């Protein structure tokens, strides 16, 4: 009913309240991404929020619409593109196809007012900046509020990552100048970052292909496996990105809402999971400036989200092994 809907909606937003607030303060596109990605997932897989999946399977237009919304989201910010792995796991090729076509269409729409040459130049400039430039760096903009794996390593070990706040936090732990870092130190730092990043990417990609061959993944009693796989994908996209400010984690509202709108009772470990998110997602409103900066410099949120990501993957696998507990 309507009262239950608004109650659960408010409950879902509480753990990420500060992230949502920062989106408002920065006039960020986060709200648009939440809407596009969340609605896209719901249209392509209505059972994620506890609804019936029959409508999507019997009426292909909902899958196409879901793919269109996800395609638009991926064009605005590349991070939602990882949700294509969820569509693959569900073998929803209609949604995958419409997402790809929508993305391509969005890339050529500027031709209508800019022409072929200028539109092509824009895309070449973007490719040169994002691929030929930023991809060559192991770390990008490792400031306090950047809560990614690469920024976490840089703030802990490399001098100059955030000159204004690093000394206040007693950092870096090892290399107190770029000369101390040297070629050998830079090599091992890049290796450590890439090990974490590629391990997460390979893990969720392998799971997506594995689930695509397992019909059990689509069963009604495996809804939680689908919800937590979505959560794992979102966390991977945020952690391996070059830059993920605190407010980017507002995307966690999507799996939180999917989980709470379901009928299954919350397990104790799931409550701890929500607590991990709320530590920063609600705590940032409560922590004082100095404490907040200290936690940000040590990337406490990023490491908690890494733990949550691993937990989401393991919990997904655990649910897939169960036979009757989640019916």
Structural notes for this entry:
The chain has 327 residues and is an all-alpha fold. The chain has 16 helices and no strands. Helix 10 runs antiparallel to helix 11. The two termini are 23 Å apart. The model has no long low-confidence stretch (mean pLDDT 89).
Key terms for this structure?
16 helices; 0% strand
The ordered string of helix (H) and strand (E) elements is HHHHHHHHHHHHHHHH
Overall pLDDT score: 89
Beta content comes to: under 5%
The main pleated sheet reads as: none
Class by helix and strand content? mainly alpha
What would you report as the Rg, rounded to the nearest angstrom?
21 Å
Binned, the helix content reads 55-70%
How many H/I helices? 16
Secondary structure blueprint with pairings:
Elements: H1 2-13, H2 17-25, H3 30-44, H4 54-58, H5 60-76, H6 84-89, H7 93-108, H8 111-133, H9 149-157, H10 178-212, H11 223-240, H12 253-260, H13 268-281, H14 283-286, H15 289-297, H16 300-321
